[in-house]
Structures are given as structure tokens and as C-alpha cells.
Amino acid sequence: MTGHSAVIEVCGATKAYGTGTARRVVLEDVHLRLLKSEFVCVVGASGSGKSTLLHLVAGLDTATEGRIGVTAGRPAVMFQDHALFPWLTAGKNVELALRLAGIAPGSRREQARSLLALVGLAESHGQRVHELSGGMRQRVALARALAQGTDVLLMDEPFAALDAVTRRVLHAELLRVCAERGTAVLFVTHDVGEAVALADRVVLMSSDPGRVVAEWSVGLRSARGTDTPDAAGLVDEITARLGEEADCSARR
Ligand SMILES: Nc1ncnc2c1ncn2[C@@H]1O[C@H](COP(=O)(O)OP(=O)(O)OP(=O)(O)O)[C@@H](O)[C@H]1O
């Protein structure tokens, strides 16, 4: 991997599914680089290959061409569906991840407690997942992802199923936790407002095939996470460009 502090480096990644006349190029020559502690949101129309890109970076699928480098082993992944064990307590779910990360049995319980406290669930250690609200479950999922102890977190619409207020609270929590731990985040969403609220950088993908076609540095334009006129202007600008891309792909 080139560059000192890049934690994710995607170089010319192409992904095609099928063969012969059924071959379909979903991603084409995608380049993307994330530095330590950087928060990058990927937006694009449905089917533009955002999830596919995340799967490639996660090592859940392989690129047809190109190279994908991730430092510090396997990144943690968090999806819209929390995928927790509902019959286990919040604490046990996190402890399980700690066990898989090779943490010694004696310190798992304490570490699970402090991770749950970090995501604002200090009191819920002993509660079973099925007793928790949707927002609380996503917090447990975040604690479990953090339990893997990696510098890189990959998130695919993790808050899409939550109401606006809960989502806002979790945005603030996520930014705080990642800043505290120096975690880099690659976050997929089709909500441009969410992207501008969270990201240092927003990357826009085209469809058919998915390519990185535009990029905005949010920090240069507005303070993230706030309802400033600059942030609203940036949301409008990115949304307009997203619309142009959707029109282009509809004409192809
Ligand atoms: N295993 C697969 N086999 C064949 N085609 C696939 C496979 N996985 C994804 N695709 C196709 O790749 C394209 C991109 O899918 P992907 O889920 O990455 O898009 P997306 O931008 O994340 O979409 P959305 O915003 O709707 O979640 C879609 O047309 C999808 O049908």
C-alpha cells in the first residue's frame, strides 16, 4: 500500500458479474483512498455499486480487476440489519466479538461493559437484544463492530431503518466515538443529507457502470453535523449532481 497513513486504498477496482452476453460491469476503475480517522460517505443512485464496493473493501467479495488494500487486517462491518443474536444480552453479543478478536476471557466482560458505555448503553449490558429499541440495537451493533479493534469501520446504510431523531442522535454518537478512537469510516448511504452531516468527504458514484464521478470536501464548505446554510447548499449541489447522473444512466 502506498502513502503512509492510508488505511484503505482502492486502485482501479472493477467488478463484473456473469459471463458472455450476461456479463455486467457493476464497478469500473474505481479509485478511492481513505486516511486514518477520515470519514468518507459514498452516495449514488440505487444500483450504482455502493454496496458492492463496500463488500470488496470488506473482503466479502473479490474484484475482477484492480487492487484493494486495507491496513490492520479485516475491517469491521455494520449493515442496516444489525445481525445481533436476539436471545443473547447486549453484553454477550459484544463479548462474542471480543472472543473472536482474540481477547482473553478474563477481560471480555469489562471490555464489553466499557464499549457499551462508549455507545451510551451502560445500563443495558444485561438486557436481551429483543428487548431493545431499534436505535439501541444499532448502538449494540456499533459496540460489537468496535470490539473488533480495527482502525477501519465499513457501514452500509446502518441507520436507514431508524426514525429521524434517533438517527441524529446516533450520528453524533458515531462521530464522537470514531474521533475518540481515530477510526476511519467508509459509509454508504443514498441520503445526501446524512452524508453531508457525517462526512469529511462525500464521493458520488455513477451508475452502469459504477465509477467515482465527483467528490466534495465537506470540511471546506461547512461545519459537518450542523444545519448551516452552507451545509444545505452543499446538500442541494450534491443532490442536483446525483440527479444528473441518474438522468445520464437512464439514457444509456
Ligand atoms: N452477486 C451478484 N450477482 C449479480 N449481480 C449483482 C450481485 N450483487 C450485486 N449485483 C448487481 O450489482 C448492481 C449494484 O448493486 P449494489 O447493491 O452494489 O448497488 P447499491 O448502489 O448499493 O444499490 P442500493 O442503493 O439499492 O443498495 C445491481 O444492479 C445488482 O443487481
Compact overview of the structure:
The chain is of the alpha/beta class and 252 residues long. It has 8 helices and 9 strands.
Care to describe what's here?
With 252 residues, the chain is of the alpha/beta class. The chain has a domain at 82-149. Helix content is 40%, strand content 24%. α5 links the parallel β6 (152-156) and β7 (184-188). α6 crosses α8 (229-251). The radius of gyration is 19 Å and the shape is globular. The model has no long low-confidence stretch (mean pLDDT 89). Adenosine-5'-triphosphate is lined by residues 17, 26, 44, 46-52, 190.
Structural class: alpha/beta
Show unreliable segments. Answer: none
Bound molecules: adenosine-5'-triphosphate
Order of helices and strands: EEEHEEHHHEHEHEEHH
So what's the overall shape?
globular
Radius of gyration: 19 Å
Number of helices: 8
Biggest beta sheet attributes: 6 strands, mixed
Distance between the termini: 35 Å
**Side-by-side strand order of the widest sheet:** 5-6-7-3-8-9
Helix content: 25-40%
Strand content: 15-25%
Mean pLDDT score? 89
Total number of β-strand segments?
A: 9
